[in-house]
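Let us work through a complete example step by step.
Step 1: write down the sequence.
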Amino acid sequence: MNQVIISENEELVMKLLHYFISLRGYNPIMIRGVQNEIWLENLNEDYKIIRIVSDYIHNDEQFKTDLFKTKVLMKDIKKKTLSFKMNALSIFVNLGDNVNIDEFNENNIRFADLKSEEDLNKYQFIEASFPDIKQNMTFKEKGLELFMKLTKDINEKNEGDMKMSEDVFRIKKPVVTYALIAINILVFILSFVFNLMNDFAVNRYFITHGEPYRLITGIFLHAGVIHLLFNMYALYIIGMQLESFLGKSKFLAVYLLSGLAGSMLSIFMSPGFSVGASGAIFGLLGSLLYFGYHYRVYLDTVIKSQIIPLIVINLLLGFFISGIDIWAHIGGLIGGLLATMAVGVKYKSTTFEKINGWILYLIFIIFLSYMVFFGI
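Step 2: predict the structure and record it as tokens.
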């Protein structure tokens, strides 16, 4: 039987992958045209990008070429992740002796030349961001046994991530979406019998004079059949997907919080009457943006080619077509983003992010409330 020989470089690469993927939550990302290097991403870490480069780089000119390529690819990743700043750590495991990485200074890219895990002692900036890396690079297993263990751990981590993604994207029955559509239709019918517009529509005067419930009731009223049908169709299309992604309770919370934010900005900017679910629906679009950001591996193309153009077109129409409450749309969009940040995205959001989401949402609502009730 032929004996499998694993080189020191291969073993080092596997140990690094095991640490960053299994213990630090980095995910491999596919970079078209890249060979002999692995790119890992985790937007919650100091270094959002980790590059593990096994290609042999034998002189400074070749290193400069590698650096230029890295900058170009990072710009593309920044666009996809909507990141203003992105730090990267490039780890070279096969760097030639003629290359002096100390001569290269980049604000957002750090370099490390590792021939073994002991070389980590030379880089304090790595230990500062990953204080447990050295202790998790030592294993009792050796050779093929170590390779099999590390591979098994990494595969288990990836399988776990896959199961979580399947859970999120599994189609569920949109019960809340159907219920909201039914309530809107029922309210529309009742409005003809009981003239609900006068008593429940969004209006600054009545809201500031003891009727704050209008902030919510107004989002269930519609001015006509076309208005109702257009909004219910949009709610059906968007709600079916988003409710499945977020879950029933979170979806309902985002819908109502978005509607509230839309109503608040509407009465802040306009004293007239306003009705309709469009503010809440724009909130669902904002929610899709936030959700898509966390699951961009699956939804990046859809977000860029469908969701963002849909939002932009509808906002522009609101500025040029009379009778559309553009401020309710903008308020709902902002509210939807912040509300989704507050309730969290399954398997992705941290407690810190959710707390910040609630703080930002409440600041937005409290500011508008102050300006409406106590402002000049």
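Step 3: interpret the result. The mean pLDDT is 89.
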